[in-house]
Write a sequence for this structure.
């Protein structure tokens, strides 16, 4: 779908923008998501003339940025879009809008990964931050388990290496089974 600039009666930004702290990522996206992620930026992902995705590109891109910054799974990101006012403000949604199914993020990530510019979303955010200095000094690093690094920390915003290395997060027994080896039980 295309992004509509017309405000609805229950537009989260019109009603709740003051609840989102100035200088936050959510405030930045609320003010700039239409400029950061124009519909034309994603035209090559959907080349079929038979239809368009039903969710505006700037909404999905904003969710992907928030998801990466908070280290959320697709399910958790879709849920956050449904129940967090700050995310609705950042994405330009109405308060009563249900968001979308988590599989939309997987679908878009797959399209991005197979495109000629898979990092276009994060390149757009980086260019604005570099040009304006907005959000400078506002980032925070969370401590994570050293065995798990988020895709953006590995330089992999599409998450391709998550699928490749997922067997290492399994138990030793299931890793062996995954490789087709048998597990002998000690009795």
């Amino acid at each position: 779908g295309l992004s509509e600039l017309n405000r609805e009666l229950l537009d989260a930004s019109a009603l709740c923008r003051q609840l989102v702290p100035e200088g936050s990522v959510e405030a930045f996206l609320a003010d700039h998501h239409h400029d950061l992620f124009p519909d034309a930026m994603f035209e090559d992902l959907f080349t079929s003339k038979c239809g368009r995705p039903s969710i505006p590109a700037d909404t999905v891109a904003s969710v992907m940025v928030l998801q990466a910054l908070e280290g959320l799974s697709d399910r958790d990101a879709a849920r956050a879009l449904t129940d967090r006012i700050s995310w609705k403000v950042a994405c330009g949604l109405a308060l009563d809008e249900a968001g979308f199914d988590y599989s939309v993020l997987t679908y878009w990530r797959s399209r991005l990964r197979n495109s000629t510019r898979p990092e276009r979303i994060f390149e757009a955010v980086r260019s604005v931050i570099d040009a304006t200095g907005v959000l400078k000094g506002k980032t925070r690093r969370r401590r994570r388990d050293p065995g798990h690094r988020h895709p953006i920390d590995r330089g992999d915003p599409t998450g391709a290496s998550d699928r490749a290395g997922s067997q290492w997060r399994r138990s030793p027994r299931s890793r062996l089974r995954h490789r087709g080896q048998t597990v002998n039980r000690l009795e």
Q: What stands out?
A: The two ends are 60 Å apart (CA to CA). Residues 140-146, 165-170, 183-187 have pLDDT under 50 and may be disordered. The CA atoms of residues 172 and 178 lie 10 Å apart.
